[in-house]
Design a protein that fits this description.
single chain, mainly alpha, elongated, L-amino acid transmembrane transporter activity, transmembrane helix, Amino acid/polyamine transporter I, AAAP family transporter: amino acid, about 750 residues, signal
C-alpha cells in the first residue's frame, strides 16, 4: 500500500518544486514517525496490539467505531487507487503521458474490465494470507526496479540535455494543499504496523527494537520517495502525470521495452495486494457480512466483494487521477488514523508527567522531554488542519481537473467531427504533395541541364585549344614563321595548354555533381512511382522514371569518360593523346545533354499532369460536396481559373501551374481552418455556459500546446492530409490571444 503512493510523488515535485516538496516530505515523515512512536507507546502500555483494540482500550467504544470506519474507508480508497493504476496500464504513453487521466473515451469499459475481470477473481478465490505473504518479495523487487527505472530515465534526460524535460521549479507553495496529504498517506504506516508485528512475533522482539525498525523504515521510505520523485520530475518535467507510470513506454528501442516491462510488472505487483485488502475488509465488516448472509446465503462473500468493487469502480471513474485519490485518503482517513486518534490515545495514556511510563525505548518522545504532551496536542491540531484545509484544496483541484477533462474531451470530439468533414480534401493535398515533389525535381533537372551544357562548352573549348596546339606541332618551321607575320593569328603556348587542362579539371568536378544529383533525382522519382503504385497507376511517372534511368546511365558513362580523360591529361604531355580522349568525352557529353533535355521535357510533362491531377481532385470535391457544404465556394475560383490559364499558356497576366496549385491548396486549408474555428467557438461557448474556470481553460490550453508541439515539424511542409491537430492549435491560439488581451 505504501509503495503505490510513490507513483504520485513525481507529480508532487512538479506541483511544488524540488526544494519545497523535499521539505514537505521530511516534515510529513517526522510528524508520522512521532505519531507512530506515541501509538506504540500506548500499545506497549495497554498491551493491545491491534489498532481497534488500542482505540477501544484508550478511547472506548466510540473511538473503536471511528477507527473501524476510518480503516474501512482507507482500504476502500486504496482499492480505488489500485483500479486506476492497473487500468492506466492499458493506455499507451503516447496518449496518456501528457493528457490527464479520464480523457480516454473507452476508460469506463477498461476500468470495468479491470474491476470485474481481474480484481473480482483475485478477491474471491485467493483467500490464503500465508500464500500471499510469499509474493512480498516480488512486490519489493518490482518497487526497486521501478525506482531504478526512474533514476535511469532522469540520467538519460540529463545526458541528452532535453530542455523540454528540464525540472526548473524549486519552490511553489500554490500546490502545497494537494502535496501535503499525499505525503502523509505515503508515511501512514499506523494501521499496517500491528499486522506486521504479529507476523514477525512481538514476543521475541524488544520495544526498543520495534521502535528502531519503525524509525529506520520511515527514513528509508523518505529517501526512496525523494529520489524517485525528484528523478521522475527531472525525467518528465512539467508533463509528469499524476500516475507516473502513464509517462512510461514513450521511449523507443530496447529502453522503451524496458519501461513497458516495469509498467507491466508494477501492475502485476499491485494486483497481488488486492486479496490482502479484501481479507482485511471482510475482517473489519462482520456486521455487514452477517446482514448480507441473510439474503445471499453461502454467496455472502461474493456479494460483498461485488458491492465493494462496484462502489470502487464508480469512484475510480469519478476520480481518475490517483494523485487526487491519495490526496483525499491522506486528508481524511489518514489525518484521523495517523494524527488525531494517536494523539488522543497518547493524552489518555499519559495524562501527566508524574504518571507517565518510562520513555527510554522511544527516542523521539524522550528527546521532547516535558513537551511530549504538547506534541500530542500539536499533532491533533495538525490532523484537523489537514482534514479541513487539505481536503478543500484537493477537492478544488479535483473539480478543476474534471473541468479540464471535459474541455479536452469536447475538443477531441470536435477534432473528430472536423476531421470527418474535411477528410475529403485529403485527395487535394495528396495530389498537391506529389506535384510539389515533381516541381522540385524539375527545378533540379533544369539546373543539371545547365551544368551539363556548361561542361560540354568547356570541353569543346579545351578540345579546340589542344587541336590548335597539335596543328602547330605538325607545321613546318617555314609555315610557323609565315604564321607569325599574321597579326590575327594567336599561337598556343604551354601556358595556354596548362590553363585548358585546369578548366577541364574544374569541369570534371562540376560534372561529378551532375552524376550525384541525378542519382538523388532518380531515387525521388522512384519514391513517387511507388506511391503511385500504392494509390493509382500514373503512366507519366513511369515514363519519367524510365527516362531518368536512361539519363543516369548516360551520365555515368560520360563521367567515366571524363575520368579517363582527366587521368590522361594529368599523366601525359602528348597533345594528340589528350585530344583523342577529349573528342570521346565531348561526343558523350553531347549525347548526355540530349538525354537530360529529354528527361527535363518528360518531367515537365509529369508536372503538368500533376497540376491537372490537383485540379481534377478539387473539381471532384466540389461536385461531391457542393450541395451540402457552403464552405466549398473557396475552391471554385482557382478551379475555374486553371483551365483558362493552362490553355493560354504561361504569360505575364496568367497564373502558372505552381500558383494555381497553391491557390487550390490554400482554399482547401481555408475550409479546414473555418471548420476548426467554428468547432472551437462552440467548445468555448459550452465552457462558458457550464461555468468552467479560466484556470481550467488555461491548463487545458497548456496541455494541448505541449501535444501540438510534439507533432513532427516536417509534416507541415508538404502534407498529404489535413492537420489532425488543427482544432487543438486553434484552441491554443484562441485562449492565448484571449489571455494577452486581458493582460493588456
Amino acid at each position: 500500500m505504501l509503495g503505490s503512493g510513490a507513483l504520485a510523488v513525481p507529480s508532487c515535485f512538479a506541483a511544488c518544486g524540488l526544494a519545497l516538496t523535499t521539505a514537505t516530505s521530511a516534515g510529513a515523515c517526522l510528524a508520522c514517525a512521532l505519531s507512530l512512536e506515541q501509538m506504540l507507546y500506548c500499545a506497549n502500555a495497554h498491551g493491545a496490539w491491534s489498532y481497534e483494540d488500542l482505540t477501544s482500550a484508550t478511547l472506548g467504544r466510540r473511538g473503536r467505531i471511528v477507527a473501524k470506519y476510518s480503516i474501512a474507508a482507507l482500504l476502500v480508497g486504496v482499492v480505488v487507487a489500485y483500479v486506476n493504476i492497473v487500468g492506466d496500464n492499458f493506455f499507451t504513453a503516447a496518449s496518456s503521458g501528457v493528457l490527464p487521466a479520464g480523457v480516454e473515451v473507452n476508460r469506463e469499459r477498461v476500468m470495468a474490465g479491470v474491476t470485474f475481470g481481474v480484481f473480482l477473481p483475485l478477491a474471491t478465490f485467493v483467500k490464503s494470507q500465508k500464500r500471499l505473504e510469499k509474493v512480498v518479495g516480488f512486490g519489493l523487487a518490482t518497487t526497486g526496479l521501478f525506482g531504478l527505472c526512474l533514476v535511469t530515465l532522469a540520467a538519460r534526460r540529463l545526458a541528452l540535455g532535453d530542455g523540454k524535460s528540464s525540472a526548473s521549479k524549486t519552490w511553489d507553495a500554490s500546490g502545497l494543499g494537494l502535496v501535503l496529504p499525499i505525503m502523509v498517506f505515503n508515511f501512514a504506516a499506523h494501521v499496517m504496523v500491528f499486522p506486521a508485528l504479529k507476523s514477525s512475533g512481538t514476543a521475541v522482539m524488544s520495544t526498543s527494537r520495534v521502535v528502531g525498525i519503525a524509525n529506520e523504515t520511515m527514513v528509508h521510505l523518505l529517501i526512496f520517495y525523494i529520489v524517485t520523485g525528484a528523478c521522475g520530475y527531472v525525467a518528465f518535467g512539467s508533463s509528469v502525470n499524476g500516475n507516473v507510470l502513464r509517462n512510461f513506454g514513450a521511449e523507443s528501442g530496447w529502453f522503451g521495452i524496458y519501461t513497458q516491462l516495469v509498467r507491466f510488472l508494477y501492475g502485476c505487483a499491485i494486483c497481488t495486494g488486492v486479496p490482502l485488502l479484501f481479507i482485511s475488509l471482510r475482517e473489519i465488516s462482520p456486521s455487514l457480512l452477517l446482514s448480507l448472509s441473510r439474503v445471499a446465503g453461502r454467496h455472502t462473500e461474493l456479494v460483498f466483494d461485488v458491492l465493494v468493487l462496484y462502489s470502487c469502480l464508480r469512484v475510480s471513474i469519478s476520480v481518475p487521477n490517483i494523485q487526487h485519490v491519495f490526496g483525499l485518503i491522506g486528508s481524511t482517513t489518514c489525518s484521523i488514523l495517523t494524527f488525531i486518534l494517536p494523539g488522543m490515545m497518547f493524552l489518555r495514556t499519559c495524562p501527566s508527567s508524574s504518571s507517565k511510563k518510562s520513555m527510554n525505548d522511544f527516542k523521539l518522545l524522550q528527546q521532547l522531554g516535558s513537551g511530549v504532551r504538547l506534541s500530542a496536542h500539536a499533532l491533533i491540531l495538525f490532523g484537523v488542519f489537514i482534514g479541513i484545509a487539505c481536503t478543500r484544496s484537493t477537492l478544488q483541484s479535483l473539480k478543476e481537473e474534471a473541468e479540464v477533462v471535459v474541455i479536452i474531451q469536447r475538443l477531441v470530439a470536435a477534432q473528430t467531427f472536423v476531421r470527418s468533414r474535411v477528410q475529403v480534401y485529403d485527395r487535394i493535398l495528396t495530389a498537391a504533395a506529389k506535384f510539389r515533389r515533381i516541381d522540385a525535381v524539375e527545378r533540379v533537372v533544369s539546373q543539371l541541364s545547365e551544368e551539363s551544357k556548361l561542361s560540354e562548352s568547356v570541353v569543346k573549348d579545351v578540345t579546340s585549344t589542344l587541336a590548335l596546339a597539335s596543328s602547330q606541332e605538325t607545321r613546318s618551321a617555314a609555315m610557323r614563321e609565315f604564321d607569325s607575320l599574321n597579326p590575327f593569328r594567336k599561337d598556343v603556348d604551354e601556358e595556354d595548354v596548362r590553363e585548358a587542362k585546369e578548366k577541364f579539371a574544374k569541369a570534371r568536378e562540376s560534372y561529378r555533381n551532375v552524376s550525384d544529383t541525378l542519382r538523388e533525382v532518380r531515387e525521388t522519382l522512384r519514391d513517387i512511382e511507388e506511391e503511385g503504385e500504392a494509390s493509382q497507376a500514373d503512366e507519366s511517372s513511369d515514363d519519367v522514371h524510365e527516362r531518368a534511368d536512361e539519363a543516369l546511365e548516360k551520365v555515368r558513362a560520360t563521367d567515366d569518360a571524363l575520368e579517363e580523360t582527366s587521368d590522361v591529361l594529368e599523366l601525359t604531355e602528348d597533345v594528340n593523346t589528350d585530344l583523342d580522349g577529349l573528342q570521346v568525352a565531348s561526343e558523350r557529353l553531347e549525347m548526355t545533354d540530349t538525354i537530360i533535355e529529354q528527361t527535363l521535357e518528360e518531367v515537365r510533362g509529369a508536372k503538368k499532369s500533376g497540376a491537372e491531377a490537383v485540379w481534377q481532385a478539387a473539381t471532384n470535391v466540389v461536385e461531391e460536396t457542393e450541395n451540402k457544404d457552403e464552405l466549398i465556394k473557396n475552391l471554385k475560383e482557382p478551379i475555374n481559373i486553371a483551365p483558362r490559364a493552362w490553355k493560354k499558356g504561361k504569360g505575364k497576366d496568367v497564373d502558372s501551374q505552381e500558383d494555381i496549385v497553391e491557390k487550390i491548396v490554400a482554399a482547401s486549408n481555408k475550409v479546414t481552418d473555418e471548420e476548426a474555428e467554428r468547432a472551437v467557438e462552440t467548445v468555448l461557448q459550452n465552457n462558458t455556459q457550464d461555468g468552467a474556470s479560466s484556470r481550467a481553460v488555461q491548463r487545458a490550453s497548456e496541455i494541448l500546446k505541449e501535444i501540438t508541439a510534439e507533432s513532427p515539424s516536417d509534416s507541415s511542409k508538404n502534407p498529404t492530409k489535413a492537420d489532425e491537430n488543427v482544432v487543438f492549435k486553434k484552441f491554443v491560439n484562441a485562449t492565448t490571444e484571449g489571455r494577452q488581451v486581458e493582460q493588456q
